[in-house]
Specification:
Radius of gyration: 24 Å
Structural class: alpha+beta
Helix content: 25-40%
Number of helices: 2
Low-confidence stretches: none
Mean pLDDT: 82
Number of strands: 13
Length: 192
């Protein structure tokens, strides 16, 4: 038979265990959020800056405010006849691209299903296949949205339509890319 004292002591152990579980449950989301912040911060701090030519697209997200949705002239829609590719691609697949600077902007030289070794003056970017139509592959790079205050978004949108906008992207050694700033005419507009 279990005495009252033993039951009391047993319940205290369960309460301690529950409070440990509570602390653990509260710590996990915090660690995940810190991980996301560090991921972007490290890419911004250590990645190589490249400049890409922007083409216009124009949404407003009712939940997140105004932003400029960006497409990229030389990297959003790729013609497999113009860039080297290791094999065919399917929608939803991850792809890796080697980019190099041509005159003012960086463009894709080759795409692959696996991470590509890059030479000096090249970077590797990781993207996701958005669409496949014949020999054309649409790619999302994770750098397609730039959030701005409403008035500034309208101004930038107008400049994008005139073809007067490019983006500064930081690309790290793991092929991750982060949108760092937009160049609108002679003005640099940075992310917050």
């Amino acid at each position: 038979m279990v005495s009252r004292e033993e039951k009391k002591n047993d319940n205290k152990g369960n309460k301690k265990m529950n409070s440990k579980q509570f602390v653990l449950m509260m710590a996990v989301p915090f660690v995940v959020i810190i991980g996301f912040i560090l991921y972007y911060s490290i890419t911004l701090a250590t990645g190589e800056e490249i400049v890409l030519k922007v083409m216009p697209i124009d949404p407003v997200d009712l939940f997140r405010g105004n932003y400029v949705d960006l497409g990229y002239r030389d990297i959003s829609n790729l013609d497999l006849n113009e860039v080297g590719a290791d094999k065919e691609f399917l929608e939803g697949e991850v792809l890796y691209a080697t980019l190099s600077k041509k005159e003012e902007f960086w463009t894709v030289d080759m795409i692959s299903h696996k991470k590509i070794f890059v030479n000096e003056n090249e970077v590797c970017m990781k993207g996701k296949v958005r669409s496949v139509r014949g020999d054309r592959v649409g790619v999302e790079w994770g750098i397609e949205s730039f959030f701005l205050p409403a008035e500034k978004a309208k101004e930038v949108e107008s400049s994008v339509r005139r073809g007067n906008v490019s983006s500064v992207v930081s690309v790290d050694e793991s092929c991750n890319s982060v949108l760092k700033a937009l160049i609108v005419g002679n003005e640099t507009v940075k992310t917050k």
